[in-house]
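agent> step 3/5: call structure_predict on target 'Ppx/GppA phosphatase family protein' (Clostridium disporicum).
agent> reason: downstream docking stage needs a structural representation; sequence fetched in step 2, passing through unchanged.
tool.input:
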Amino acid sequence: MIRVGVIHIGSSKIRLILAEVEEMGYFKVIDELKTPFKICYELSKECILCSEKLNYILSTIKTYKSLCEASGAKEIFAITTSFFHDLKDSESIVSMIKLNLNLDLKILSQEEEIKFTVLAVNRSMKLNNSLIVEITGTSTNLIDIKDGKINNFTILPFGGINLAYTFNINDRILNTNLDVSSSYVKDKLDDISWLNDNYESIIFLGDLAKTIVKMDKFKTHYPLEIINNYEITPVGIHEIYNTIKCKDLKLRRKIDGIDLDMVDSMFSSLLILNELVKKVSPEVIRICNNTIREGILYDYLYKNYNVMDDILDYSIYGILNSLNANIPHAEQVYFISAQLFEELKPLHRLDDKYLNILKAGSMLHDCGTSINYQNHHKHSFYIILNSLINELTHKEHLMSAAVAASHRFNDYHLPLAQFSYLINKLDIDIINKLGALVKIAEGLDRSLVGVVKKLNVYYDDEKVIITVSSPSNLDVEIHQALRGKNFFKEIYHRDLFIEKERWQN
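tool.output (status=ok):
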């Protein structure tokens, strides 16, 4: 296990993420810092750093580097993006950072910036026909994605900060300034020949994206803390846009969930996003928690580790490794659960889109034992619910946690009222159908050594018979699995029988 730090000089903040990397190439962020830092206030003016701001950069990076070193970081990457070229004497600033701090500040090209951004997004969710959008302080990055690959991209030279101060929309919004700035953004978007209304979704990332999530959660009383894969409709974006438009700086600071560091650039950033949404007309806007910083980390991992390509497996095995869980047992419970799911399809009538829920729920069912064995099903529920599991939607994430929590032979039930924003009684029925299978699978590996090698399923209108075979004795496994027969009958309306079949190698 090693630690890696990424220091990122952005146009509105200087950021640090410190990550812990497992031997399998899985990383988790263990510390994060951000320091406000705004430059390039207007589009037409050259960006000049005074000595005070330069010293501010150096002292901040020095602090970040010290934190990384104190935490035992093996590698420290210092990056910035193409906006840095707009600074007067940018090369001398790079030299000063090298001379004073012994750090090589890499100024990413536009192509590198797009590459690392797409890598970060691809590692957090499945991408088909989508438009990736990031609005920084001084630029708007648009990336056309087809089947996870870059089709086109454009980096527009305006973002939240320079648009706000160029058109005087950083505080109270006057109609004349609003009209001029909106027309400016619309004209620039119209100039992009490949930008169309054929996208299934907008994938939105960055500071504004996370702020929008926080604001929307306050408004809707959203039950989960997860940011990645959060979904908001075009109407929801327009409502937030109108809310901010009607408020000056003082009133914006009072809005629940707003980032106080970006109150002056909040409206201008939303203006860009709102114009994009109107032009593209996506079905949904999905929020990505990852940024270019995570892209840098993944690039490092790919060069030094054998990283799993499947992003759901990467998350699941990463969590299991981090918690020192029994991975062979987790794999066996999923193996049996998946076989039962396939064999009983005519009874539960669920298609394969629920397999990700079953995989996450069955493989992580015992992760709560890292807290305490007693009531570990409840611990598993909140560990899963508060873990970063890439690819899953929020509903799938919640249902996976509920499936895991229902693996024990007790009367645990998900508190529906608390999560009614995301799931309904039909979803509870699906959770119970999957949970019943995980109960049986858990019982059939009670000795934790994978003794069940084969199984077959037979059923009629009154009963389900599972036959299991193994070169080992299965009395304990069969007894434990049958403890779930009453719950199975309640859900599948059939008596459950489990029998040992003669072992044939």
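agent> step 4/5: record observation. The chain has three domains: 1-108+291-302, 124-288, 309-498.
agent> proceeding.
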